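User: Hi! I'm working on a homework problem where we have to compare a predicted structure to a textbook description. Could you give me the structure for the chain below?
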Amino acid sequence: MKKKKKFSIKSKHLITIMTIICVGLIALAASSKFSFEPLQRGTGYVISPFQNGINTVGTWLRSQTTGFRDAKKLEQQNTELEEKISALKEENNALLQDQDELERLRKLYKLDESFSEYEKVAAQVISKDPGNWYNTFTINRGSNDGIQVDNNVIAPDGLVGIVTEVGSDWATVRSIIDDSSNVSAMAATTSDTCIVTGNLLLMDQGKLNFIQMTDKEDKVQAGERIVTSTVSNKFLKGILIGYVSEIEYDTNKLTKTGTLIPAVDFAHLHEVLVIKELKQKGSD
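Assistant: Happy to help. Predicted structure tokens:
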């Protein structure tokens, strides 16, 4: 069986052929008789779509890159704005707190002027018993500041309570709303006496009890100011306690019982004044 001969061209022959073709093409280009327009047109048909596609892709990539850069820039600007807003909020909160504190101190100053006949010391509330109310709390002044047990404690709106325990730089205060508190009081306009008793359960309604009021002429009505009485053993006279909200006769038809709204906000106590003068030792 005969083997087929393989057709092959040597490298030197291939180079020679290619040279001849190139020379021929150059000669044709130089001749005005031959036109390359059909070849150029065909090439345009083939290359133009690719070129357009490349241009479209390039334009899309540029727009995506630009959009990404813009998004990053906007994100950075948004972060900066959020930081500025946060800083402004903190600054605003600080200003509101300062304004609130300033207002409280102004009220405390006016209170100090109202009881100018007594020597007083200002104190801050630093702790309190658990619960919603400031029925028992601690202040940051003590015996080093001249505070003693049974000193009266007041706030801008009225009577808070009495000092029950004293350390060198602290003191404990029992407020008039505490269950164990009893204050000898009277109606401001009639001087009819009564006893204001602490009641934390009733304080959930924003009220306190008063008992044993001697109002024979029925002059005490809702809205009447109740103040500390002249016969109180521990509390100085004339300090506002609250305002009558309800009043009724007891079963004996001789005395009256009712409720009053405290003048002091016992849910929010920050600063108080301690009157350093004692009325006298005894029990109220």
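For your comparison, note the following. The domain at 120-275 is CATH 2.40.10.340 (Thrombin, subunit H). The longest helix spans residues 37-114. Good luck with the assignment!
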